[in-house]
Model the fold of this input.
Amino acid sequence: MSDINRLKNRTRADYRYILEYRTRWSDNDMYDHMNNSIYNFLYDSVINTYLIEQCGLHPPSSPQYGMVVHSHNDYFASISFPACAELALRVNRIGNSSVVYEIALFEKGHESVRSVGEFIQVFVDRDTGRPSPKGMNEKLRRGLENILVDRQPSKL
Done:
């Protein structure tokens, strides 16, 4: 199965964290569906909500913070106001100072995924703006590991 078909077949069960978002009238564009830029806004929001709630991040003062270095999105179906979106989050890979997130957008009450995006963040030290030689702090790493999807084949 191709990568795009694998993404199109994602379900909520493929993700470890879900956050609801009530769409707003202003999220729609002139074509009566959610504007593409809103998807990135929502993806950034679900990631930061998770980091704040589960990883101890305090954006204005934490010694480390995540900088987005890459993002993309694949769109499969539209969503529009007044729908409720369900933003599903997982981590596909954790490096020394980087993390690869996968985010899916579902419409509440519908099974098929509407879009799947990827964000890559590098965690940098607030004082230098550079990745720490020690990598990301332990609390942050543990929180991210809680939604890490094990891609290694199981050894039976």
